């Protein structure tokens, strides 16, 4: 086991999770605004809205269960649980532990499924998502097997790093990490290729590169968390409980930040296109209202007589568009 006691890691994870949960709640409010601002109810992307709500519900339930778990371990069963609070938080068969990890599996599978769907929508090809889909199925199998293994642990109920359970958890981490990296790579590469093709035909600022940056940021944030999670399991550190509790709000945050960025860019693009189209229509209407007429140029010629006090002024009309020439002379004294 690691040097960090189980009760201390549980308390630390509760504090960090609550901070991240508050931030994810603000991001959810921003997501609702991005999806519904100046839109009618029927125009809202309902599947994405449902996913956002499910992520919020999973994070909220996980936060509530974490609070109950802290209260049970440090207050309710402090004096009655065998070997005290540290043994309570180390017990992998305890109900709140199983519920929290089941919620983590659910949210991970949901978020990875959304990423695979984005890849399919962007590429419009089933071949591209074959590998991510297989990895996604592996997430489901290994995640369910890990939770089931924890619930049935009898030989070492206080050791999450028992051989039978640890291998399934490590397999789950590898699967979700590979799914995240493959889907993020496919999305970034596709958007970058589209941007590269249209860059030569566009004189305005790019609307796609901000999406690429936020996709990279989201993938990096989630991947760093998964790498830390994996290192904790490989080194048998109790820090895994901290990262597993932090994972749910982090998943929600990465989903919300990508959705908000894409929605804002789409709104800006639509607004710019609408403004450009309106300007073109106004210009066309102006041309139709004021049709182009032949241009006539009046050239004045000044000739000086011998008498310095008198001048002869002559005007010649020289049409520049083929109109018959017309001359007119005026004398000024």
Automatic annotation (TrEMBL):
Taxonomic superkingdom: Eukaryota
Spans traversing the lipid bilayer: 19-36, 48-70, 97-116, 128-148, 168-193, 214-236, 248-270
Keyword Ubl conjugation: no
Region (Disordered): 304-333
The keyword Acetylation is annotated on this UniProt entry: no
Keyword set, alphabetical order: Membrane, Transmembrane, Transmembrane helix
Name the record gives this protein: Uncharacterized protein
Organism, scientific name: Suillus luteus UH-Slu-Lm8-n1
Lineage of the organism: Eukaryota, Fungi, Dikarya, Basidiomycota, Agaricomycotina
